Amino acid sequence: MSHPGGREPSVSLSLLDATMVGIGAMIGAGIFVLTGLAVDISGPAALLAFALNGGVTTFTALSYAELASAIPRNGGGYAYVREVFSAPVAFVMGWTRWFTYMIAGSLYALGFASNFLEFGHIYGVTLPGQPVLYALGAVVTLVALNALSTEASGRGETAITLVKIAILGVFVAFGLTAADVGEFDPFFTEGPLSLLPAMGLTFIAFQGYDLIATVTEEVENPQVNIPRAILLSVLVTVVVYLLVVFVAIGTLGADALAGAGETAIAQAAEGFMPAFPIIGSGAALIAFGAVFSTISALNAVVIGSSRVAFAMGRERQLPARLGRFHYRYGTPLAAILVSAVVMLIAVVVVPIRIVGNLASLFSLLGFIIVNYALIRLRRRQPDLQRPFEVPFYPLTPILGIACNVLLGLFIDPFTWILAIGWLLFGGGVYLLLSRRGDIGPSGPPEIQEPEPIQTAEQTDD
Length: 461
Fold this sequence. Notes:
Helices cover 69% and strands 0% of the residues. The chain is an all-alpha fold. It is globular, with a radius of gyration of 22 Å. Mean pLDDT is 82; it is low at 1-5 and 448-461. Keywords: Cell membrane, Membrane, Transmembrane, Transmembrane helix.
């Protein structure tokens, strides 16, 4: 696949690196912040809300896995929609996914800043400056890393994500010995219907596996490794979430956990975790884990947002300069820098809570379109080689569509109004760029059929 005006992408990410991009994005600050808030809504049944969300997200993850194996191109959901829908529909998909990743970046950057300062407070250290300065510094640092080397950013993501998984593993290991299953009786203290708003609140914690598909062309053997990475990242994340939530409820109790709110996991850790050398109390270890979680999630969305902008630039739906890899660094430098500018502005001026809800809504809408894109591609190109195929087709993508629609209904009307406004703004940008000649009607590159996978006998011959 040629890249006019730039070099080929650097194929430098392994299956482990790709998997860690997804896990790093999903196991962010959400598990630390949302557990207590979910228990406040649905009591001990919050554990079931997390489990059901894991099932809901798996339907769409399977669709991503098949599409990634059939359409091995950077851009993730945007690339798939561009293949099977008209240019305006593809632009809407790319425009909303790009926005979602950039806004998520600002959320993670601010989350990093608050957790970093809190980590200092635990040791009696008051760090100078405002949180926003630390957030900006985190964005600038990770943007520089991503601009210079995809391999370095990928390896860094892997290392940081493994550290935070290890910290949560320590929390679970100590917690399972202290958890009391009696804390789950009664289970539905707030009624079965309380599951739906709890699922709506926590669904954002299961977004991130789609970022793996945005770096397809930079992963070794992508038509095999991208589907594997997507499914592995979802599996690991769901297991970690369920274990952490079980321990938190089983040790602190639903009422105390709900009262703890955003500090629920740290307060639970104080009750059963011993002091550790150098780090100190269990709460300090959890705060340390939260710092790693937010920084790895930020790095993942810096990677993902730039690749969506790159894919749109390459297919002439944003200025073509964005769709080129830098001749020296082998990274989509222009796309990284443009995405970073928007992220930095969002850190300073955007009302985070409102736009966070907007990002969740756009994710749900994007997942609906991706599931439908799978169905449409099956109908239009039934003979296309698919190294991975969704099981129980077409039931799986249909369930993915239905579940995402249901969760979208629990998004408040004001967020829907903002979403429509952002889409209209995107339409204006599209028309303006079209009239200026900055974008054109070129279609997506031809799908490259995967090369046959050689067996050991064939290799020996």
